[in-house]
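User: Design a sequence. Structure:
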């Protein structure tokens, strides 16, 4: 682990020099002894060729000298050999110790590299601080979290509070002071200065007292910026959901009363002008009620709280119901709505109410944004991937290619808000969320001037066996 250590005082440098001398002296001594042993061994090797001559001389000497002198000579030779053997053993052991030291150093280096990588992946740094000795050491990951990508001579690493946001400095200084004086555990968050990344750091540390009575803080630092942002987003979503829920309740109660009284007025004896005014009231009330319902739906979808009852649903039944409901909207503008009903055995895995809501929304859009005397068609088919495609096609003005990406965004009407066509801009966003929640997908393709085609794709429910065939259903164009 890469660490920068900073210590103030002259005693530290002297201590490092004394410690460094010992291993150097040991190496020099071992080298001299090794050289001496090698020299002796080389000498013995060089005179190996005269071993026989020495043997003959020894025999002649033995015959000429006394037994005591021979024993003394042999003893001296044995002492020399023992010394040489001792030098050789010492050299070998020194070599082995040096090799083991190199292996341990390499293993330590690998361990430090693994630890540094683990800290980098986890986003956790480590640090030690000795307030009395003014010693601060920290890992490379701790430095990175605080914006130190390389040493900066202009910055003082001992200035622990220099990297902390000014708003958090008093609180951090108080916590560190308590830890240094009475050993209070460290556990708090602080923000790094914007100039160094602006991260939110969570710090934990414990106090350790050494044999000399000095206190040291050993701790970790963790980047919790994203965790904090997610928590804030979740709190905001909960607040939004609560607000929408209360708003819908407060608005629906008086709105239902308005709609109810409006419907009662239509049953009374009204002249043409009065009846038109009441119809405006009912139309605006229904539009507001639709907006409230769609806001609730999109809120549930975004929060993942949309409740579905998935079961086998008849495609033929849903298409027939949707066509019946949209026909009264299409007739005043002489728009023909036709459907090719699939065989009765075609079922999809869906929520029946939500599936009908999505299909009705697509058909309503196809009618609302179409021109007079236009045509809308809906059909269903099974794909090779065992999926059911329900296709809604119209011959209206179509959608420009640069607007299709924004089509499913909430409150996006692509300029239609300037027209007389009513809408909230939420229908397609809600429809896509519901279809995806049912395990399907919704897509669109369009050519400006030639209408648009929306496709719903859902899973087949059960084993589909084609029957007699499809049935054509259409609504006739009515006169103005």
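Assistant: Done.
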């Amino acid at each position: 682990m890469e660490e920068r250590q900073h210590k103030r005082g002259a005693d530290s440098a002297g201590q490092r020099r004394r410690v460094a001398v010992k291993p150097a002296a040991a190496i020099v001594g071992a080298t001299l002894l090794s050289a001496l042993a090698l020299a002796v061994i080389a000498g013995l090797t060089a005179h190996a060729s005269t071993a026989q001559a020495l043997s003959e001389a020894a025999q002649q000497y033995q015959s000429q000298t006394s037994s005591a002198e021979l024993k003394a000579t042999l003893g001296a030779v044995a002492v020399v050999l023992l010394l040489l053997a001792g030098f050789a053993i010492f050299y070998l052991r020194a070599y082995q110790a040096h090799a083991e030291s190199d292996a341990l150093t390499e293993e330590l280096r690998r361990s430090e590299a693994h630890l540094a990588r683990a800290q980098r992946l986890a986003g956790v740094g480590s640090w030690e601080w000795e307030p009395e000795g003014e010693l601060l050491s920290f890992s490379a990951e701790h430095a990175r979290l605080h914006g130190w990508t390389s040493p900066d001579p202009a910055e003082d690493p001992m200035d622990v509070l220099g990297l902390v946001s000014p708003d958090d400095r008093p609180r951090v200084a108080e916590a560190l002071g308590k830890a240094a004086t009475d050993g209070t555990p460290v556990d708090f968050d602080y923000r790094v200065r914007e100039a160094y990344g602006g991260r939110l750091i969570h710090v934990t540390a414990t106090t350790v007292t050494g044999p000399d009575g000095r206190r040291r803080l050993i701790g970790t630092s963790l980047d919790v910026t994203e965790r904090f942002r997610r928590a804030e987003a979740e709190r905001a979503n909960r607040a939004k959901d609560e607000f929408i829920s209360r708003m819908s309740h407060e608005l629906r109660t008086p709105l239902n009363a308005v709609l109810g009284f409006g419907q009662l007025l239509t049953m009374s004896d009204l002249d043409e002008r009065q009846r038109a005014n009441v119809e405006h009231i009912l139309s605006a009330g229904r539009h507001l009620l639709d907006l409230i319902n769609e806001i609730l739906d999109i809120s549930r979808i975004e929060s993942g709280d949309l409740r579905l009852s998935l079961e086998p649903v008849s495609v033929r039944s849903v298409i027939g119901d949707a066509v019946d409901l949209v026909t009264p909207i299409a007739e005043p503008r002489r728009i023909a709505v036709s459907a090719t009903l699939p065989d009765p055995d075609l079922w999809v895995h869906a929520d029946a109410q939500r599936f009908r809501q999505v299909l009705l929304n697509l058909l309503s859009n196809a009618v609302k944004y179409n021109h007079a005397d236009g045509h809308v068609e809906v059909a269903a088919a099974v794909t090779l991937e065992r999926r059911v495609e329900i296709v809604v096609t119209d011959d209206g003005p179509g959608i420009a290619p640069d607007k299709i990406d924004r089509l499913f965004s909430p409150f996006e009407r692509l300029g239609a808000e300037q027209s007389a066509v009513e809408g909230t801009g939420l229908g397609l966003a809600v429809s896509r969320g519901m279809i995806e929640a049912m395990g399907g997908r919704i897509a669109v393709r369009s050519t400006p001037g030639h209408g648009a085609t929306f496709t719903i794709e859902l899973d087949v429910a059960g084993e589909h066996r084609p029957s007699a065939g499809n049935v054509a259903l259409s609504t006739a164009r009515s006169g103005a």
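The first strand starts at residue 3 and ends at 6. Confidence is low (pLDDT under 50) at residues 1-42, 44-51, 151-158, 476-480.
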